[in-house]
């Protein structure tokens, strides 16, 4: 953020003085793409529409800055919410780690 404050936005959902969900959106200059990251919601605040609202808010931020496409690296639990927003899965990433 210190190098290029316009390259990303950090979004925090608050309930009173308590942060309940955090996420960010990266704006990739010179491309048509922005990417959504995070979206971690406290367990006791899940199933209340907070993550869904965060997705929508970040998508609007990207659109307002002229980005046509969004890339999301999400857990399978986010899929129903993302599909309700009109996202379509175009690929799947399988992660591996080395033993030991």
Describe the model.
The chain has 100 residues and is α+β, with helices and mostly antiparallel strands. The longest helix is centred in the middle third of the chain and has 15 residues, at 50-64. It has one domain: 3-Layer(aba) Sandwich (Aminopeptidase), CATH 3.40.630. The protein has two helices and four strands. 21% of the residues lie in helices and 31% in strands. It is globular and about 40 Å long. Strand 3, helix 1 (50-64) and strand 4 form a beta-alpha-beta unit. The protein has a four-stranded mixed β-sheet with strand order 1-2-3-4, with helices on one face.
Q: What is the CATH superfamily label? A: Gcn5-related N-acetyltransferase (GNAT)
Strand content: 25-35%
Main beta-sheet strand count, sense and barrel state: 4 strands, mixed
Q: How many domain units?
A: 1
Number of helices: 2
Helix content: 10-25%
- The tally of beta strands, per DSSP, is 4
Distance from N terminus to C terminus (CA atoms, Å) equals: 35 Å
Radius of gyration: 15 Å
CATH class: Alpha Beta
Q: Specify the CATH architecture.
A: 3-Layer(aba) Sandwich
Give a topology summary.
Layout: E1 8-15, E2 18-27, E3 33-41, H1 50-64, E4 69-72, H2 79-84
Parallel strand pairs: 3-4
Antiparallel strand pairs: 1-2, 2-3
Q: What distinguishing features does this structure have?
A:
4-stranded mixed β-sheet, globular, 100 residues, Aminopeptidase, alpha+beta, 2 helices
């Amino acid at each position: 953020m210190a190098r290029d404050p316009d390259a990303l936005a950090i979004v925090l959902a608050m309930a009173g003085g308590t942060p309940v969900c955090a996420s960010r959106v990266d704006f990739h200059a010179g491309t048509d793409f922005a990417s959504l990251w995070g979206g971690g919601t406290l367990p006791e605040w899940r199933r209340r529409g907070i993550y869904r609202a965060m997705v929508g808010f970040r998508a609007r931020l990207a659109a307002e800055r002229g980005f046509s496409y969004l890339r999301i690296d999400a857990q399978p639990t986010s899929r129903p919410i993302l599909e309700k927003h009109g996202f379509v899965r175009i690929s799947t990433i399988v992660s591996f780690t080395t033993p030991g």
